[in-house]
Amino acid sequence: MMRRRVKIAGVVQGVGFRPYLYCLATELRLNGEVANGTGGVVLEIEGERQRVEEFLRRLPLEIPPLAQIESVDVESMETSGVAGFRITASDASGHVSTQIPADAATCGECLREMLDPGNRRYRYPFINCTHCGPRFTITRSIPYDRPQTSMARFKMCAACQTEYDDPHDRRFHAQPNACWECGPRLTLLDAEGAASDVKEPVVATLELLAEGKIVAVKGIGGFHLVVDATNSEAVARLRGRKHRFGKPLAVMVRDLDAVRQMCAVSAAEAALLTSTERPIVLLRALGSHGLAAEIAPGVPWLGVFLPYAPVHYLLLGNAELSALVMTSANLSEEPIAIANDEAVERLHGIADAFLMHDREILQRADDSVMCVMEGAPQFLRRSRGHVPLPVRLPMEAPPLLAVGGHLKSVFTLARGHHAYQSQHLGDLESVSSLDFFAEALEHFERIFQVVPECVVHDLHLGYASTVWAMQQPQVKIAVQHHHAHIAGCMAEYALSGPVIGLALDGTGYGADGCVWGGEVLIATLSGYERYAQLKYAAMPGSEAAVRQPWRMAFGHLLAALGEGVFDAEILARLKVSEQDARLLARMIDRGMNSPLTSSCGRMFDAAAALILGRDRVDYEAQAAIELEGVAEMGEAADGAGYGLRLERNEGGVLILNPAPMWEALIEDLRLGVARGVMSTRFHVGVADAYAQAAIAAREQTGIEDVCLGGGVFHNRLLTGLLCRRLREAGMVVHLPVRVSPGDGGLSYGQAAVAAALLAERF
Ligand SMILES: [Zn+2]
Ligand SMILES: [Zn+2]
Ligand SMILES: [Zn+2]
């Protein structure tokens, strides 16, 4: 006989772990007990040696679907001789290292029950079990137990309680367990927020959607604005009311078969679509997708996701509607609405009706957005379904907070090997986004009980996140933007460096005060050297040049062609008069409001202005996205790219000079070459130039590892071309998978740099 105490850490609470251990123990006729503790799950197991060993062997192999084990510690104990196996009460004392699960899509078994007229939960919009349902978004504190969730106010009926108490039941300790009898309910409100007395809110909602109405639907992480995706007029009305003109809208589609009618879906994409995290997945649209053209104007992709809450299945369960536009209920980059009265107030004049429920959402979480990049998943936005699961840091970090950047804000709270990234917080431009930042931070500090000893921020003093960081009493560490991008990639792959870092990005504050974003760095986690950069060009009007790509084109062409930029054809292409152009040139000459930039993203803007005539943008990276789109859609090019010239400056830094590229591009414009061909040549030229720079860096340093970081790596055409060239040259390419390569992943990289610096210092 033997007795062992087993401590299991990881995602082991709220995922059916204790019943799993109970069943395994009883199957092997072992005695003991199990409890949730703040350190994870603590188990004591006693019986014949052989059976205990069998138990420990099988334990990690057969865990429930949502569980993730990080560590298992086993120690010997005296046998007690007590018979039976018990699940004992949770212990809320001690140091917290356990984790709250992420929200998970309705599982197959719950779905079958919901569609079974004989089941007591037939068509119940809040059906869930231990393998599915809301978690993070309904949790106030730890340990993850019903009184700490927004289900606390719903007292379970006898039938639900019996399931909850039965270790053999799929709903044993399923904290959000509920039914028609005892759980949350849907209600339909009119545009003014007045309750209606409709018997079947879902049916009434479907009628409204069929009429082309806009309905705000409360889901898991917030409200969505919903319209019929085949109704052009309704989609256009939604855009008008939401003041969202160009940016593509996400579409929820009934099932994978229906997705295949609209888009090309690879096996990797199908796996992402059907994962329990249910992200929005960017897919290549088929020509005949049958949806309103207003959903994704100007681009060949659709953002598609499958239902993940029971109410979504009910809305998409009828024959007429197979696709719904479902977009976060907010104005542009403000936080998504979650509270009922907040939704009525903020969506007044936008929504024609509200499909609400009375289960509180305690944490906002927008939908995650992903794509398949080079065969692996990539985050465009890491949020619902993934939050608050940690990403590993390669070194032990003291408790620290990294506040990220300015746009697509995400903070990272780190301790030990765990980096907890917040949900997507939006652009920190509005007061409401800053409030959301503070609210989410407070929640994370509470649930993970991390009191940061150090605050890490960007070099840019104008970022709202930096301003916030400066006001904090803790030790501060500033990290250069692109070093953070590269360090994030290194940390994900546990590389200590040095590596060759290709940071191709929008804009980030450089160490020399210029705007960086097209750099080749030789980087370790704690430092970097700038090996190469795109040649500086002026950004006339500074921020205005981001919103008006024609200004970037002018800045680049002035640098490349000098007087040649005043050519009538070029000015006509940029839709600028000679007089205004002369004024702009003088402004640049005097350095007035015209910072210098090496940004690759801004060079994409410049190319889009020339190739597409895209003179202004409605959303971030629109010009670059459309430029990639025309290459995807356009005629095949011959494979040759517009060449950039590599030269060295006095400081020994390799300069990627795009002047020959602009000359060739303008020649193609004059010849009337197709836009798709020009776009492809541009992509090929940029990929070639950075590949050459990386190869030159290897020759000089012997480093084989290349880490990619920055928002430009959301571009699949460029990333594919660049990765291929680097691999052909025998280099080892690392692309972020668990963290976004864009600014959504910035705080993770900042945390990695700070942890490395602190480890070196002490
Ligand atoms: Zn379930
Ligand atoms: Zn019930
Ligand atoms: Zn960036």
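^ zinc ion complex. The CA atoms of residues 272 and 741 lie 18 Å apart. The domain at 186-369 is CATH 3.90.870.40 (DHBP synthase).
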